[in-house]
Amino acid sequence: MTGGMYMSSLAAEARDGGASDEADHISGDTLVSGIPAVNAPVPPAAPKPPAGSDGGAKPKAAAKPARKGRSKAALAATAVLAVVGIAYAAGLLMDHADVPTGTTVLGVDIGGKTRDEALKALNAAVGDRGTAPITVHIGNQDKQLKPELAGLSINTEDSVNQVAHRDYNPISVIGSLFGGEHQVAPAINVDQEKLRSQLQTLSPNTGGSDGMVKFVDGKPVGVPGTPYQAVDADASVQKITAAYTQRAETGRNDPVDLAVTTHQPRVTQAQIDEAIRTIGDPAMSGKITVTAGTHSVLFSPQKSLSKILTIVPAPSNGKMTLHIDLAVLRQLYGNAFDGVLLERGIGTKTPVTPQDVASAMLPALAKTAPEKTAVIQNVAN
Fold first, then answer.
1. Which DSSP category does 280 fall into?
2. Amino acid 181: pLDDT
């Protein structure tokens, strides 16, 4: 049977409603656009991917979890920043004192206090840490170094001033909410010149010197220097300063070992000659009358100035400087200034001291004149 005849027969059966199940099966399964269909082989099942592989997953599908992970990290970071911001604001609102909460100086908690309260607490805690003598070992001897003479002191007022302000550091502000401490180093005053001068007085006496100018019967006389044993000034200043700071912070008063070395004279003959010409000759050029109000004392080159004056190298830089022996000066003027009071800068009135007399004399000693006058200022009425 031809294809056309077969299609006609099927069409007729369909019109008559008598098409058989077999005809329906053939029509649905074998006809495609009038051409008999060929049964295609069933493709084999795809092999299962090995364990641990991504199974050929598409890149786009794999990227979705990564985007989800980044979103979680961003949310977590935002939450952390919000918590930090709230804590920072809370710390600023809760801390209204002059000294931020948690501040310690010399082991003393002065946080949360006013400036005056903090200063009072710090002074009470320091006690004698700043004034007690420091024991030093020099060679085979133990000697005492007094801080007030060596220019050493704990400046409690500056220590408080350097912390008595609002602290906007987030670490300090947030830490204060949880009892955190902010330790601040104390303010230590060190007068290098005074400290070196005291070290020089503590050095062993070996008969040597740096060189100097002394005065004999109103005339300057040069004294060349000779080698001598003395402490190493540079190293000693550092060690004593460190020991003093440690004692201020901890209360420990450990002895300080100072090395002794041989020193050559610092002053040359040329420097001695220059000092005689520029310092010694003017100082011996005439008498000096020192006055304080209605009281006065006369000092002459031959009888008194020669006893109290020397020209020596300054401990700090070796520059030749006029030196006045205050103890001998006090003996010379005796009771001449008894009853004279001077107005001090702190609003008090106190008697004349040898330092007051020496300070008034120094400008006059620098002048060349047969008669000189030195006036002690600020005499109280």
1. I
2. 57
Residue 41 neighbours by CB under 8 Å, 6+ apart: none
For residue 2 the two structure tokens come to 């031809």
Q: What is the dihedral of CA 296, 301, 307, 308, to 10 degrees?
A: 60
> Distance between CA atoms of 152 and 175, rounded to whole angstroms?
34
Distances (CA, A) of 149 to 192, 193, 348: 11, 11, 23
pLDDT at 263: 84
Q: What radius of gyration, in Å, describes the C-alpha atoms of the chain?
A: 49
280-296 residues labelled b (16+ CB within 10 A) or e (exposed): bebbbbbbbebbbbebb
Helix or strand holding residue 43 (H, E): none
pLDDT at 161: 80
Q: How far apart, in whole angstroms, are the C-alpha atoms of residue 68 and residue 328?
A: 91
- Which amino acid, 38? V
Does this model's pTM top 0.90? My answer is no
Helices (H), 251-353: 269-275, 281-283, 306-308, 326-333
Are 154 and 129 spatial neighbours (Cβ–Cβ below 8 Å)? yes
pLDDT of 26 reads 39
* Single-letter amino acid code for the residue at 118: A
d(CA 245, CA 227): 33
Cα–Cα distance, 295 to 376 (Å, whole number): 10
CA–CA dist 321, 177 (Å, integer): 57
Q: What gap in Å lies between CA 379 and CA 276, rounded to an integer?
A: 34
Which H or E run includes 222? strand 219-223
**147 with 131: CB under 8 angstroms?**
yes
- Look at residue 122 in the predicted model and tell me its pLDDT: 83
The separation between CA 324 and the C-alpha centre of its own chain, rounded to angstroms, equals: 37
Phi, psi of 63 (to 5 degrees): -75, -20
**Backbone torsions φ then ψ of 215, nearest 5 degrees:** -125, 130
- In the chain, where does DSSP find H-type helix? 3-16, 21-30, 59-94, 115-126, 156-161, 170-177, 192-202, 233-250, 269-275, 281-283, 306-308, 326-333, 354-365
pLDDT for 6: 39
Closest CA to 26 of 3, 5, 10, 2: 10
Which residue stretches of the chain have pLDDT < 70? 1-70, 72-98, 164-182, 205-207
